[in-house]
Design brief:
Purple Acid Phosphatase, chain A, domain 2, alpha+beta, binds fe (ii) ion, 8 helices, seven-stranded mixed β-sheet
Length: 501
């Protein structure tokens, strides 16, 4: 049964948007920062702050008195912040040639057994009103450490105006929440990557040497983001030899690392899906289905995707969980599995060459919320319905799954975690705390704590606020939220009118 959640909160945020409009929300209209600032490549000791300003000029990021200069004096700026303390919340101010803007972020947790929460959403393109409501809903996710976007953020990657829509709408969210992009078919242009993707985004390139596909580790989990649309084999489709080589090396490394308890793979197109006649890149999907066997060998927890505009959770024959989180704002598709869940034969819909199982499918907007705590993973599909209601949408948990890959006993005399080995489908929690910030409440949220972060020294910019829980500090930022949300809508309305002309 669907469980209503936070409808009151979303309604309140929608009210905040209205107040912002009434207030006129002028600061963005006068600013020369036209995209961002937004947060990329979160690390334990820093982050990358990205923005675009209207006129070429210098730029800086200031954190508690420490000034980081942009390497560019052009319109695009990517400033890599280093020397920060793990698991600590910082306020930052961007100075764009005299125009300032600010935000807040929390550095990554260094404790490999720290509990954390992340979100995943995809397919924001085309319907800006619905995308706006999804973003407004995501603003209520104050426990999330970062957001994964599974691609198709914009309608046409080679059109600058589409990126402007995206960043205008996303601005209140991604100025405070680090996020990671995935290349979708709409980001690519005839298998080429338009310059805007690399201009506006800065995912980590440490392991791959490219922004097209990449990986990072957060606490005890590895995140692999694949590119199925640009770094591909021409004509045939599917991943390039370089990308496959990198993927195999990454899987081998992470699956052999005892500190990595979970592996999450992100790619735009899903290996399986439930829309009649939905073929997409058939060769890519075939490859993904074959890769699902490889994923199973290496113990991948889940493959999280988009492309098909609905919400679905299924399972490959080898037992790999796949999620389709295509409910970020694009026009919804019908989902033939609604009311017809369960095992699908190899010939089902005439698209797939092997059988698979559909556990949940619904043609609604939404996103995925994942809580990781030691070996335990709790994955909730958050559904957004009644999305055009001016009083706010209805937000519900529409699907919940938990699994446990085996807990690790933390060092120290007070270690109390045992190898729980909870079977897939259980909602049981680990039977012991694994770190200072490990406690997870029954509703899946991580409660705030006031534990200070050790290790700060005089050479490190002091933290503005403590981030012991990893929660984004939204409570004291209501005026900024008012103006940000109001301006976001104003910008959208102005551009829509301009476009209609
Ligand atoms: Fe797509």
């Amino acid at each position: 049964m669907d469980t209503p959640i936070r409808t009151a909160t979303i309604t309140a945020l929608m009210g905040v948007v209205t107040l912002g409009l009434l207030a006129g929300g002028a600061h963005r209209a006068e600013a020369d920062i036209i995209k961002g600032p937004h947060l990329q490549a979160l690390r334990t000791d820093g982050i990358t702050v990205v923005w675009q300003q209207e006129n070429a000029g210098p730029g800086t990021v200031t954190i508690n008195g420490t000034v980081y200069n942009s390497p560019s004096s052009q319109t695009l700026h990517e400033v890599t912040i280093t020397g920060l303390v793990a698991d600590t919340t910082y306020s930052y101010t961007v100075d764009s040639d005299g125009i300032t803007d600010s935000g807040t972020f929390t550095t990554a947790q260094s404790d490999p057994l720290a509990c954390f929460e992340f979100l995943a959403v995809g397919d924001n393109r085309s319907i800006h009103e619905d995308h706006t409501t999804v973003v407004t809903t995501l603003l209520a996710e104050t426990n999330a450490r970062f957001l994964m976007n599974t691609g198709d953020m914009i309608s046409a990657g080679e059109v600058a105006a589409d990126w402007q829509f995206f960043f205008d709408i996303e601005y209140p969210l991604i100025k405070d929440m680090p996020w990671y992009p995935t290349i979708g078919n709409h980001e690519s242009d005839d298998d080429a990557l338009p310059v805007y993707y690399t201009d506006f985004l800065a995912p980590p390139t440490d392991t791959s040497g490219t922004e097209n596909y990449y990986s990072f580790v957060y606490a005890n989990s590895a995140f692999l983001v694949l590119d199925g649309h640009v770094d591909v084999v021409p004509v045939v489709g599917g991943f390039s030899a370089d990308q496959m080589s990198w993927l195999n090396a990454e899987l081998t490394q992470y699956s052999g690392d005892p500190a990595v308890q979970h592996i999450f793979v992100f790619t735009h197109e899903p290996p399986y899906s439930s829309k009649d006649g939905r073929t997409g890149n058939y060769n890519l999907r075939e490859l993904l289905r074959e890769a699902s066997d490889i994923f199973a060998v290496h113990g991948v927890d889940a493959v999280i995707t988009g492309h098909d505009h609905y919400m679905e959770r299924g399972e490959s024959p080898a037992g790999i969980r796949y999620y389709i989180m295509g409910g970020g704002g694009a026009p919804l598709y019908p989902n033939e599995s609604e009311g017809d869940l369960g095992s699908k034969p190899a010939t089902w819909e005439g698209l797939f060459t092997d059988a698979h199982t559909v556990h949940y499918a619904q043609s609604i907007h939404g996103y995925l919320r994942v809580t990781v705590c030691n070996g335990q993973v709790d994955a909730e599909v958050i559904g957004i319905t009644d999305i055009t209601n001016p009083s706010g949408p209805t937000v519900t948990v529409v699907d919940t799954t938990s699994w446990n890959t085996g807990n690790i006993t933390p060092p120290g005399p007070d270690a109390g975690v045992t190898d729980a080995g909870v079977a897939d489908g259980s909602t049981s929690q680990p039977d012991g705390a694994v770190s200072d910030d490990a406690a997870v409440s029954p509703d899946g949220t991580t409660p705030q704590t006031d534990g200070s972060t050790p290790g700060a020294d005089a050479s490190t910019p002091p933290a503005a606020t403590d981030g012991g829980c990893g929660c984004r500090q939204t409570g004291g930022d209501a005026p900024g939220l008012v103006f940000g949300l109001g301006l976001m809508l104003l910008g959208w309305i102005r551009r829509r009118r301009s476009r209609q002309r």
